[in-house]
């Protein structure tokens, strides 16, 4: 099923919240109500800037989103 080329507008709703854990680590919760799916993502910074390098840094997610 493709997208209707005659449709003038589309709406995409996300519900997002984030919480700070320890040091530079954060976790984000993303909910897509239309399909009833939820995802959890984590980010951290490298040790050189005060993190523990346990997850990708926020800028990595941003850059990946452009590539997607």
Overall description:
It is a single chain. By secondary structure, this protein is α+β, with helices and mostly antiparallel strands. The protein is 15% helix and 29% strand. The protein contains one helix and three strands, in the order βββα. The protein has a three-stranded antiparallel beta sheet, with no helix packed on it. A hairpin with a 4-residue loop joins strand 2 and strand 3. The chain starts with 14 loop residues before the first strand and ends with a helix.
Task: Give the helices and strands, then pairings.
Elements: E1 15-20, E2 26-32, E3 37-43, H1 58-67
Antiparallel strand pairs: 1-2, 2-3
Fill in the keyword field for this structure:
68 residues, 1 helix, 3 strands, elongated, three-stranded antiparallel β-sheet, alpha+beta
Share in helix: 10-25%
How big a fraction of the residues is strand? 25-35%
Query: Low-confidence stretches at least 5 residues in length (pLDDT < 50)?
Result: none
Gyration radius, in Å = 16 Å
Shape: elongated
> Strand order, biggest sheet?
1-2-3
Q: Give the integer mean of the pLDDT values.
A: 93
SSE order:
EEEH
The largest β sheet comes out as: 3 strands, antiparallel
What would you call the structural class? Answer: alpha+beta
Number of helices: 1
State the distance separating the first and last CA atoms.
21 Å
| Number of β-strand runs | 3
């Amino acid at each position: 099923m493709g997208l209707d080329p005659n449709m003038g507008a589309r709406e995409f709703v996300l519900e997002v919240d984030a919480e700070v854990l320890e040091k530079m680590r954060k976790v984000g919760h993303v909910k897509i109500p239309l399909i009833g799916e939820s995802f959890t993502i984590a980010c951290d910074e490298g040790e050189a800037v005060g993190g523990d390098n346990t997850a990708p840094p926020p800028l990595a997610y941003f850059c990946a989103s452009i590539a997607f």
